[in-house]
Amino acid sequence: MKTRFQLFLIFSLYCACSAPKTPSLSTIDHQVDSLLSMMTLEEKIGQMNQYNGFWDVTGPAPAEGDASLKYENLRKGLVGSMLNITGVEEVRKVQKIAVEETRLGIPLLIGFDMIHGMKTMSPIPLAEAASWDMEAIEKSSQIGAREAAAMGINWTFAPMVDIGRDARWGRVMEGAGEDTYLVSQIAKARVRGYQGENLSDPLTLAACVKHFAGYGFSESGRDYNTVEVSRVTLHQVILPPFKAALDAGARTIMNSFNDLDGVPATGNSYLQREILKGKWSFGGLVVSDWGSIGEMVNHRVAKDGKEAAKMAVLAGSDMDMESYLYVSHLKELVESGQVKESLIDDAVRRILRLKFELGLFDNPYLYCDEQREQEIVGSEEHVAGVLEMAKKSIVLLKNEQNLLPLKKSGLNIAVIGALAEDKDSPLGSWRGEADPNTAISVLEGLNEYPDNKYNFAKGADLVLEQPVFLKEVKLNTTDRSGFVQAIQAARSADIVIAVMGENGFQSGEARSRSEIKLPGLQQELLEELVKVNEKIILVSMSGRPLDLSWADEHLPAILQVWHLGSQSGHAIAQVLYGDYNPSGKLPMSFPRNVGQLPLYYNQKSTGRPFNPGDDIVFWSHYSDVPNDALYPFGYGLSYTSFSYSDLRAEVLENQQVKIKVNVKNTGPREGEEVVQLYLHDHFSSLTRPVRELKGFQKISLQPGEVKSLEFLLGKEELGFFDGEGNLQVEPGEFTVMIGGSSKAELALKFEID
Ligand code: NOJ
Fold first, then answer.
1. How far apart are CA 195 and CA 611, in angstroms?
2. Mutation test of ligand 1: which of 255, 289, 322 has the most ligand atoms closer than 8 Å to its C-beta?
3. What is the average per-residue pLDDT within 278-285?
4. Which residue segments constitute the domains of the chain, with CATH numbers given?
5. 3-state SS of the chain: helix, strand, coil percent to 5?
6. Is pLDDT of 59 > 70?
7. Is 461 a catalytic residue?
8. pTM above 0.90, yes or no
9. Which residues line ligand 1 (CB under 6 A)?
């Protein structure tokens, strides 16, 4: 028998000869088959095993998870991938064991949650979604990919494409909001940004679209909770972004913690075998979520780990993230005839194929270059890139009497709130390997405009101690000792900038909240400030839509700035001073109160629709608040204004419709507008939303300039999915509505045959 080195050598030579740079898929399939034929059953199962690194965790650590077992299995060739190992030096160590110490020398996939940057942080994904700028989002994803790849990573667990309709769910920060169409477009942009043109380019990564499926519908916004959705909602609302990401080339997909139709997604054959690998012919790899195979025991559908492993593999989960169950039980399951070896082969093929595509067989250390790491990570180009993205992500929610932009000199400004000096929170949740306290704070950003005077007073601490990823955030709810100074500063100021909202770790995984007002003592402080100075600009920093009803009623200006990443303070200051004209539009509705949740603009008509002007109460509404959002999906102001006119529709052959509209900049300065097109289907065989986004374009206009825009609607836009996932296009009347938010009023009817 040959030694592992000889085998590896022959194999590498074979690859080098037959696959010059970017091997075609059929070449790769051939290579995969020959490697597979050399593997023992145990080695194959080893490829399906993914371990967490030896230090960082992003979930509960399993009992078996001690480092010595991991090392032992790594040396035996029983590990196909590792996650949470970062930095060339560390990655090289484990890759070296896999390549030099195992029989076949198969390199590892190195996975990591690079969600919105690695060291140089971009805004959180929900913030980026507010830009509606696909080019910018692609570029920002590329920056993250470049830094992660330079730090040894070859696989990111992103993009998350779960639909976020419930602001209580902390993970809305990680997605692109509530709308299926917008989320789908952003998913494509991110996949392009991560994977580039060529996966074996050492500055690109494999994407992993997640969480398949339904995770965003966790009941009452509580993370990891039960999911109840109909097949129609599954096909119309939840699945299209996954399909879009896969069509854009995403090589991997992650399943989810939740159940669907009573079956956990990880063990759900309908999702993984029927839809994903069947109807959609997905050829890439499916990874479980952290421990989700083992969690099927907690779901009480598998009586033990062995049964859970069997359920997962039969349902199409190819790789076990940190459950230790495939490596412990699959061999026995195959040998006893309960699982066919062909299923194992299919899973391993998918895993090996990705390793070939990433170029790991040509060079297992492709992503391990210290010099590249030094040059790329934190480069000036990246810093400039995340600043651009941050500016585009800001949404101006209210601006009475044009309080903004601010004059650049002669003002005495009180800057209030702990978040104003916070250099950590803007980094947000899922912050890669960002060093703590490295973001530009709002105060630092304002200081770049030195001709105004700034008087900073914290008022109150937001948190009691610096929060960490794994632990609950401890809020200050009692210490008001700084209130007096803050009130005094506000009283003597021309203008107050109140920076308030959420700490960077108050959103993200396991960060659900049942209350979404300003946390801690901030609301109380704000109410004190308004008594002494009405000119307050609220800079709302959060990872989710907050309940800003009180602020909307009492303050003249509100700027939604999310968690904007490393360059946060510079971006915010440039918008406050008008050096950047805000152009962001909300990707998620901001509710009037928590009781409205889940809330989304594309609700259905119901049998008792909105009926204002009638004093009969028996229609679908609340008796204490209106039905609609405080700030709706698609909404956002600019320092200029726009008007819409000349909406035209031309029905073409083959169920296509051309829509035209004119947009004019009617205000005093250059600005960008997101022109949004919504459709309403008058009658259909299934109940349908009152309106749905089906197109948008972001344009820039000089004052007085008019642009004529064209949209082409085809079957995908005019049709809808039924409960089996088949696209139906039904003839009849539609109304198209175009404007600058989901409240767009300019409307026109057309009919298709
Ligand atoms: C659990 C999360 O749900 C998933 O999104 C993430 O990729 C894994 N942990 C790994 O950290």
1. 49
2. 289
3. 98
4. 4-374 (3.20.20.300), 391-596 (3.40.50.1700), 642-752 (2.60.40.10)
5. 35, 20, 45
6. no
7. no
8. yes
9. 58-59, 83, 113, 157, 210, 289-290, 509
